[in-house]
Amino acid sequence: MRVPPGVTPSTFAAALAQFTQVVGKEWVFSSDQDLALYRDAYSPFLNEPEERWAAAAVAPASSAEVQQLVRVANEQRIPIYPISTGRNLGYGGAAPAWSGSVVVDLKRMNRIIEVNEKQAYALVEPGVSYFDLHQYIQEHKLKVWIDCPDPGWGSLIGNAIDRGGGYTTAAHRNHFDSHCGMELVLPSGELLRTGMGAIPDSKTWQSYKTGCGPWVDGIFSQSNFGIVTKMGFWLMPEPEAYLRCTVAVPRYSDLSPLVDTLSYLESSRTTQGFPDIESPLIGYPPIGQIQLWNETGPPNFSEEHHRLLGGVTQGYSPELEAFGLKSGIPYWRLWLSFYGPMEVIEAQWRATQRRFAAIEGASFKVVNRLELPVDPATIENFHEPELGVPSLRIFSLGGRTPWNPTPSHGHMWFSPIIPRTGAAILEANRVFSAAARDLDMPLFRSFTLPACFWERCFVFILATPVTADPATNKRYREGFKKLIEIGGQHGWGEYRTAPVFQKAVMDVYSFNNHALQRLHETLKDAIDPNGIMSPGRYDIWPRHLRGVKS
Amino acid sequence: MDRRQFCLASATVLAVGSAAGVLAHSQTAPSLVIFDSRFAAGRAFAVAAQRRGIATVAIRGDVTALWRQRLNGHWARDGGAVAGLSTRASLLCLEQMARDHWRQLQSRELLAAGLVSWVIARG
């Protein structure tokens, strides 16, 4: 029997017996075979002693059962680690931050409590996946869309409280921002509802986010202060139409005005869809087409084009630019999506073109013009999440293809936030590519473009492979931490990370002698004095583990 | 025959052998077989299953449609063990999705050319 650190076998056995009384024997897991399900499939410690394992897992079916489990954990001082579906591969999966914790697996709590079509919101439990909610909406013929990440197998709640992102409109892509109201179980076992949900029989829990007084929802994301058992989300009314367009610009120096114009248009809500920047000249794909490139290979470049690419620095050479101008291959291409009534989005597209026309040589194209809804076969020709449809197709990236002959054993996402400027893209490439070369890391080896999941900033989402070789993995882990540190030195920080890197990431958030971390610890001590809940998550440790943690 | 053809041919032979083992295994006798139809080994695996009267479903790497149209319902109805021959990436997806229904990988055999045969069932 595995046992949590600092807990005697007899105490743990007693706790498991109490857990069993709460949820039944069938829903307490302690065999190695069952616990293997809670390993991180992409662990950077693949098959090493430091890999994080659960000591047991327990699967409640209701908020009331969660309350009882938490009370037992408090009584017996058992560390617990809640997961929704545990699918955030690349950011830690289902494995606990503190090895030996008991995973509280919430996927039996899979009720879709309400989908309100007129008000466009849903209230769900943690075990509800994007697939589940999408299927429910389809079966009930409701005229609302979800916004889902790629892949769409995860939990709405899990992804939102890990602050994940999606691909439709700016108002919905930020999954934490698009939530409205939580129910959660505090480490004491007390049940809490936030926002308007604090009013008994509230009529506006999913309609008004903040309620009155301090708005506390944020402290329950990327933290260890409570177990979210219900959460509301604002959905998108099914749009009447969809436009997918491109803006292409010819010169390297056009990147800055391209980004600045995009920022204006997005901040003014002239464009709403997921902006996706590619470089046809450098051969860097838009995110929406990465899986297609992996399946069928990149576009065929001419011999001259290939030769010129070998001579670029920071994605640039005068010769490559001249070749692009001569051949009509744009340096940059921006993909834009519009959702709404056709006459409205056509007008938005016209206004968008007018703004970008200030860039000399800018050219425009409508790639798709759809009256919605469309049939599933049509959707398969698109990057499905941009049409609000969950998919697993992104996993073709991990598959062996002629273009990917040696797939990895997983990856760790390196995902720093940088300013929404062209200059920041160039600066980040300069800094990280030099560092990656020095560290012999397989990132930023060629010019790299960031993503636009969130308004007002860019984020790089770059996979560092996990290999079968522990020595290589160790080198990558150390290099990853160094990249985090270097990012911090330039004022950039990760938006999210796997447990193994959470200390390194939070160390970067060090303003005024780590005032933020000290506040987190003050909150931890007040809310969870016995330190039972997710010890170490985002480097928030209970008092008794500070200084002794691994 | 080049090296790639050799590996694929070897995988096909192994697939038939693997299928015989997997499909005949009494404790995890599958009621559904998934195969990646892009590979000869996958098609051979399916033929072996069909000869035993087992329903088969083809995929081409992506398992989204399989999940939506077949597998989610199959496991929700407690439809029994599922065997298959696929890429590792497809298996990773299915292994993760199986957890939603408290199923897990019961056996796995690595074949040539990056393919794998497997059985997912209740523990």
| Largest sheet geometry of chain B | 5 strands, mixed
Beta-strand residue percentage of chain B: 25-35%
How many distinct folded domains of chain A? 4
* Computed Rg of chain B: 13 Å
Shape of chain A: globular
Overall mean pLDDT of chain A: 95
Tell me the overall shape of chain B.
globular
The largest contact between protein chains, plus residue counts on each side, is:
A-B, 28 and 22 residues
What CATH architecture of chain B do you see? 3-Layer(aba) Sandwich
Strand count, sense and closure of the main sheet of chain A? 5 strands, antiparallel
Whole-number total of structural domains of chain B: 1
* Range of helix content of chain A: 25-40%
Q: How many beta-strand segments of chain A? A: 20
Strand fraction of chain A = 15-25%
Name a few traits of the molecule.
heterodimer, A: 550 residues, alpha+beta, Uridine Diphospho-n-acetylenolpyruvylglucosamine Reductase, domain 2, Uridine Diphospho-n-acetylenolpyruvylglucosamine Reductase, domain 3, Vanillyl-alcohol Oxidase, Chain A, domain 3, five-stranded antiparallel sheet, four-stranded mixed sheet, 20 strands, globular, B: 123 residues, alpha/beta, Rossmann fold, five-stranded mixed sheet, 4 helices, 47% helix
Helices and strands in order:
The complex is a heterodimer of chains A (550) and B (123).
Chain A (H helix, E strand, L loop, with lengths): L8 H15 L4 E2 L2 H4 L20 E3 L4 H14 L3 E4 L18 E4 L6 E5 L4 E4 L5 H10 L4 E2 L10 H6 L8 H4 L5 E7 L5 E3 L33 E8 L1 E2 L3 E9 L5 H13 L8 E3 L11 H7 L6 H7 L8 H10 L4 E9 L1 H15 L6 E9 L4 H4 L31 E4 L1 E4 L2 H18 L17 E3 L2 E4 L4 H20 L3 E2 L4 H10 L2 H17 L23
Parallel strand pairs in A: 2-4, 3-4
Antiparallel strand pairs in A: 1-2, 5-6, 6-10, 7-11, 8-9, 8-10, 12-14, 12-15, 13-14, 16-19, 17-18, 17-20
Chain B lengths: L2 H22 L7 E5 L3 H12 L3 E5 L4 H13 L5 E6 H11 L4 E8 L4 E8 L1
Parallel strand pairs in B: 1-2, 1-3
Antiparallel strand pairs in B: 3-5, 4-5
Helix pairs in contact in B: 1-2
